[in-house]
Specification:
The strands form 3 sheets. The protein has a 4-stranded parallel sheet with strand order 3-1-4-5. It has a 3-stranded antiparallel sheet with strand order 2-7-6, with no helix packed on it. By secondary structure, the chain is an alpha/beta fold. It is about 35% helix and about 25% strand. It has one domain. The longest helix has 19 residues. The protein has 5 helices and 10 strands, in the order E-E-E-H-E-H-H-E-E-E-E-E-H-E-H.
């Protein structure tokens, strides 16, 4: 099975491959190397990473003026991350029909351009995203039992604050517990989030 690390943007849809989500696909996310190490402990298959169009995390963190600049910057930065972390750079997700990416993945951007419509943050707990929902910003928490608790808390807090900044209303928290890791692992991951006061 192929695992694809992508941004948790509400518009990212992966049609083939299992989506694992971190804000900005990990670019400029503190502790990202530790996240990747924990993900590699959690998932034993091939792991790839992809950039995506109109990424506000990149636009904000690099103080860019346009999405065109953000697209070019993200592609370059995600390729650097792939090399640094031993991941396959799968390609760039565009506002098009689903397109083939490297490492057997396929996906595209599906939200309306220039707008976010998510009203929830969804934590995946049991094996990445199983069902796409345009109403969700997605954060992978499938790995949290395999990481230092301080790292988990800081990584989750940064992502949650960012997604909340994109919304005019408080975002609800939901969970996706299904997946190949099974119920026990999902429950253990959820327990970590609860004990750290993240949810």
């Amino acid at each position: 099975m192929s695992y694809l690390l992508v941004c948790g943007d509400d518009g990212v849809q992966i049609n083939v491959g299992t989506r694992l989500s971190v804000a900005g696909a990990g670019v400029k996310l503190e502790h990202f190397p530790e996240v990747v190490a924990a993900l590699k402990k959690t998932f034993l298959g091939e792991m790839a990473i992809a950039s995506s169009a109109q990424n506000d995390w990149i636009k904000e963190h690099f103080s860019l003026d346009s999405y065109e600049q953000a697209d070019a910057t993200m592609q370059q930065q995600v390729e650097f991350l792939a090399d640094a972390e031993g991941l396959i750079y799968a390609g760039h997700l565009e506002f098009t029909d689903p397109r083939e990416l490297k490492a057997g993945n396929k996906g595209h951007m599906v939200r309306p351009k220039n707008v976010h419509i998510a009203n929830k943050i969804c934590f995946t707990l049991g094996g990445g995203e199983q069902t796409y929902n345009l109403g969700n910003y997605v954060i992978s928490a499938d790995w949290v039992t395999n990481a230092d608790k301080k790292v988990v808390k800081e990584v989750m807090a940064a992502q949650m604050a960012y997604y909340q900044s994109l919304s005019k209303q408080p975002l609800r928290i939901v969970f996706e517990e299904a997946g190949e890791l099974g119920e026990e692992v999902a429950a253990a991951n959820k327990k970590v989030l609860t004990e750290l006061g993240i949810v």
